[in-house]
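Quick start: read one record
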Amino acid sequence: MKYSIRKIKEQLGVKDLSDFKGLINSISESFFESHFYKSKSTYFEDILRLFDQIDNDYHFVWVLKQEKYVFQLQWKENVLKAHLDLLKQGITSNRDFGRAV
């Protein structure tokens, strides 16, 4: 998961997967249900699956030079970016709530 972890490091500033999981755990369950229509645990399983898919596609495109997977890789990277942008909203709203209390 080196490639996908690098992507979340760039977007969210986390060090590793356990840091990312801690970040997910800091966001309220209701955020996941309202934005992703699934529980936090299901979301985490699904995002890990996306990480695996991105890393596999990266391997095919850049290591094995299989050009036909470029579109898949770009599409999945865009999906990941959209997820991370939404997670940023959850992090921000969680911090704002903490300051208000």
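DSSP finds five helices and no strands in the chain.
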